[in-house]
């Protein structure tokens, strides 16, 4: 099913990258070093090149984009994040993720495949034509965004490694480096962060291997240099800073399900009829808007993905 996309909003029309990525660090350096000296030091810090400002070339518009919805301002997408490897506060990732080194970077693809391979990040960028996909993203906590991701269908990678008949699931493993990620030092989760999909979910055209957003490479706090995006599932299913993709026969153990299976099931499809034990999922707050809106089944992608779950009790398989 083809879906018309919303009118793109260029990052330059929203805010200055240096301003939103560095404003807290400016204030911190200024306060720490004193008025005159602090301002000078902070100005030097701000003059550093922004890694996330690297443009991605030859990005085409995708017909699979969300219809007619206003994009969430880039400053919100990069300063209001869940990324516990960098801290549990919403602004922690934007303040601490500059420590992450995204070059060199490689992703090992292994398990039940006939052609296992370790991909360099630049190989992944060139693996298939890059597309801009405007997707709604819904957090289990009740907030949502609309983001123009850049990547390609995950199935493009799958075709290159040729899974065997035993491959029933895909497991994604994120980087876990306490030197670069201060949140790893706190045992709030079982690190490294892992997530998983059934093969038919992974092969669905809407599931993308994501390498950028807003026409540029991913900022560190949003999962650089490579992540997955599954728009009909709650955001925590879309693993960030991936270092391993493993094709497996058994349903993989996933981080949040291990932490609290009662609250975070393996499927985690957006479902307004199944409440989180601590809050309702019937409404959501779109970042940048006042008030709340009704949550859509499968985050509004039901026409495309509902058939994947035909005959399943979605209150049991949540």
Structural commentary:
- This protein is an alpha+beta fold and 318 residues long.
- It has one domain (11-309): Alpha-Beta Complex (Sulfite Oxidase, Chain A, domain 2).
- Helices cover 20% and strands 21% of the residues.
- Strands 1, 4, 5, 8, 9, 10, 12 and 13 form an eight-stranded mixed β-sheet that branches. Strands 3-2-11-6-7 form a five-stranded mixed β-sheet.
- The model is unreliable at 1-52 (pLDDT under 50).
**Tally of structural domains:** 1
Helix content range: 10-25%
Order of helices and strands: HHEHHEEHEEHEEHEEEEHEEH
Note the gap between the termini: 25 Å
Second rung of CATH, namely the architecture: Alpha-Beta Complex
CATH topology group: Sulfite Oxidase, Chain A, domain 2
Mean pLDDT score, rounded?
87
How much of the sequence lies in strands comes to: 15-25%
What shape does the CA trace take? globular
Superfamily (CATH H level) name: Oxidoreductase, molybdopterin-binding domain
Instruction: Please identify the structural class as seen in this structure.
Output: alpha+beta
How many strands? 13
């Amino acid at each position: 099913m083809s879906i018309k996309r919303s009118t793109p909003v260029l990052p330059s029309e929203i805010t200055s990258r240096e301003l939103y990525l560095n404003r807290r660090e400016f204030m911190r350096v200024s306060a720490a070093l004193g008025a005159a000296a602090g301002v000078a030091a902070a100005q030097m810090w701000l003059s550093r090149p922004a890694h996330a400002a690297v443009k991605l070339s030859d990005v085409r518009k995708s017909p699979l984009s969300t219809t007619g919805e206003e994009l969430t301002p880039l400053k919100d997408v990069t300063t209001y994040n869940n990324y516990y490897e960098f801290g549990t506060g919403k602004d922690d990732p934007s303040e601490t993720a500059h420590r992450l080194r995204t070059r060199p970077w490689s992703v090992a693809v292994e398990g039940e495949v006939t052609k296992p391979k370790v991909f360099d990040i630049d190989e992944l960028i060139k693996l298939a034509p890059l597309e801009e996909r405007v997707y709604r993203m819904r957090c289990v906590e009740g907030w949502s965004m609309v983001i123009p991701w850049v990547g390609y269908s995950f199935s493009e990678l799958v075709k290159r490694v040729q899974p065997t008949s035993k491959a029933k699931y895909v497991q994604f493993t994120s980087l876990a480096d306490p030197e670069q990620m201060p949140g790893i030092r706190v045992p709030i989760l079982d690190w490294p962060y892992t997530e998983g999909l059934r093969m038919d979910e992974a092969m669905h055209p809407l599931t993308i291997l994501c390498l950028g957003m807003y026409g540029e490479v991913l900022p560190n706090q949003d999962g650089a240099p490579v992540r997955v995006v599954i728009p009909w599932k709650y955001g925590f299913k879309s693993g960030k800073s991936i270092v391993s993709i493993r094709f497996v026969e058994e349903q993989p153990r996933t981080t949040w399900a291990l932490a609290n299976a009662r609250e975070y099931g393996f499927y985690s499809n957006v479902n307004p009829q199944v409440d989180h034990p601590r809050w309702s999922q019937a409404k959501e707050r779109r970042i940048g808007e006042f008030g709340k809106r009704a949550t859509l089944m499968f985050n509004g992608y039901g026409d495309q993905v509902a058939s994947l779950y035909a005959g399943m009790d979605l209150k049991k398989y949540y």
